[in-house]
Amino acid sequence: FIAHDGLLISTPEYNGFFSGAFKNTIDWLSRPVEGFPPYECFDGKIAGLIAASPGSLGGVRALPHVRQQLSNVKVHVVPEQFGLSSASQAFDDENNLRDDKKLSALESVCKKLVEFTKR
């Protein structure tokens, strides 16, 4: 985890928040480890945020909470984010997004993540 400069984080939305598994992951990774500075695996990392939900909002209610959690552990989050609504019907039989606008929005987050990480 420490070796990566950028993180593309995808989360489901559970009642407007991120999952307990996501929170546990951040908590365990942020635990102090002897010989390493606090938050070393997060400090200065760049993250792009995406979410998915079977509902019409695409998980976007969870993303501000993810953004806040990551900023608490010294991660920089790119401004663009993406939420995939109706996720269970969003893909074709080859697992490609059906909607070109959604694909373009997802690609935009990924491009910004790469751009900010290169800086």
The helix/strand class is alpha/beta
Q: Can you write the helix and strand succession as a string?
A: EHEHEH
Number of strands: 3
Strand content: 15-25%
Instruction: Name the overall outline.
Output: globular
Mind summarizing the main beta sheet? 3 strands, parallel
Instruction: Give the averaged pLDDT, no decimals.
Output: 93
Helix content: 25-40%
Low-confidence stretches: none
Strand order of the largest sheet: 1-2-3
Estimated radius of gyration: 15 Å
* Distance between the amino and carboxyl termini: 19 Å
Count the DSSP helices. 3
Notable features of this structure?
three-stranded parallel β-sheet, 119 residues, alpha/beta, globular
